Amino acid sequence: MTAFFQSLGMTYEWAWFTSTIAGILLIALPLMLAVAMIIYVDRKIWAAMALRKGPNVVGPFGLLQSFADGLKVFLQETIIPSAANKGLFLLAPIITFTVALLAWAVIPFNSGAVLADINVGLLYILAVSSLGVYGVVISGWASNSKYPFFSAMRAAAQMISYEVSIGFTLVCVVLWAGTFNMNGIVLAQQGHGLGFVNGFFFNPLLFPMWVVFLISALAETARAPFDLTEAESELVAGYQTEYSSMSFALFWLGEYANVLLMCTLNAVLFFGGWLPPVEWSLLYYVPGWLWLFIKIFFFFFVFSWIKATVPRFRYDQLMRLGWKIFLPLSLLFVVLISGWLMLTRYGV
Amino acid sequence: MRVSPLVDLSQYLPILIFLVIAAGLSAAFVFLPMGVAHLTGAHNPNAEKLSEYECGFPAFEDPRSQFDVRFYLLAMLFIIFDLEAAFLFPWAVSLDLTGWPGWITMMVFLFELAIGLAYAWKKGALEWE
């Protein structure tokens, strides 16, 4: 893109700057649009599984429902509780949403179509997504109210518990791919299964890690069945209880942006990212970003499906699953996978 | 221009610009509706509206009172195991360079941490009844 702006008569620096800004807007604005639409899709899928209609009034098939909701919260009054720490109270949604956007900087949408092609892309995503817990904790603390505080404690413990197992599953992927670079990880999956299936999920050693990653992703984003942070029957609305207007909506947007990010990571790390599902030259005529979007949408459907059908976990079950099952299991697989790679690839 | 820097920081410049734009966007989302509410007259606070949520009652106690010590324990365990993961990452991409000695060293390290996990488990740090 830099070359295009240079052809318009800009110097290299300005062309680079313009193309970077354009790239950022090309990620951030469609992402917000996608989040608005995916909330609608989520509600529709959920409704369909409960034999309801879902949103169907605003616009054709209710397609504009999210935008109507957005306009409504935009015109609402922002209530800051008198007991709250005002600065932190307003900072929390800003942190949540900023961090949710920021992780997308290293996601490869196609071969070479990535904003920042850094060589530690996966590490960057891990770092940025763990910052998300600050938004939740700060909102719970700054609200100075009982339910948000309990919810923030729960959310912090839940997020950090599952971050550990996510970290170990990512180590397994990195071991096999031999690189942190997101494009490198995608390319390492080319023809991985029997020479024609693109994706690490086909690998018998990595498949269990994909299952662990999928479930941990649900817990990390506090999606059902792990939505204990806003278990409405006991904690009202969790850490968002005291929020109103757009600061409330930012938590929603951030949450769904994180869910989309986790779906994308599933696609990029285990299902070949922008590569077609199998090695077949005809499939390469479909653009790579379309393959990625199809995979993301598929995983989002799975997430919605789980939300609609699986009952909520108890907190002790959640902690047991994270610390007593996933952590030892993923540790074991780090040993197994690295040992296997030493025997077959590096050590000989 | 330095000679072959270890980390090419210029790669991270787009992320820095992204950070500024994303933070600006989020701040606009928070502060713009406040301004709009002042203009439209929706901004109309009163003491009842600004009190904290407690199912219609006045708050019973200070919400920032004691909380369960297990959250604290968990946070400490998290630091240990997340740091462990941070050690594993550079090792994972350099298996071809370190070879068997590197692998065995890491296995010894992992074994020690597994003992730590088993100890925490046995002591009941992972129990949430």
UniProtKB/TrEMBL annotation, chain A:
It catalyses: a quinone + NADH + 5 H(+)(in) = a quinol + NAD(+) + 4 H(+)(out). It is a multi-pass membrane protein. Keywords: Cell membrane, Membrane, NAD, Oxidoreductase, Quinone, Translocase, Transmembrane, Transmembrane helix, Ubiquinone. It comes from Croceibacterium xixiisoli. The keyword Transmembrane applies. One of its GO terms (biological process) is aerobic respiration. The keyword Transmembrane applies. Belongs to the complex I subunit 1 family. NDH-1 shuttles electrons from NADH, via FMN and iron-sulfur (Fe-S) centers, to quinones in the respiratory chain. The immediate electron acceptor for the enzyme in this species is believed to be ubiquinone. Couples the redox reaction to proton translocation (for every two electrons transferred, four hydrogen ions are translocated across the cytoplasmic membrane), and thus conserves the redox energy in a proton gradient. This subunit may bind ubiquinone. The gene is nuoH. This is NADH-quinone oxidoreductase subunit H. It is found in: Cell membrane; Membrane. One of its GO terms (cellular component) is plasma membrane. Its EC number is 7.1.1.-. NDH-1 is composed of 14 different subunits. Subunits NuoA, H, J, K, L, M, N constitute the membrane sector of the complex. HAMAP family: NDH1_NuoH. The chain crosses the membrane at residues 14-41, 88-109, 121-143, 164-188, 200-219, 256-276, 282-305, 325-343. Pfam families: NADHdh (PF00146). One of its GO terms (molecular function) is quinone binding.
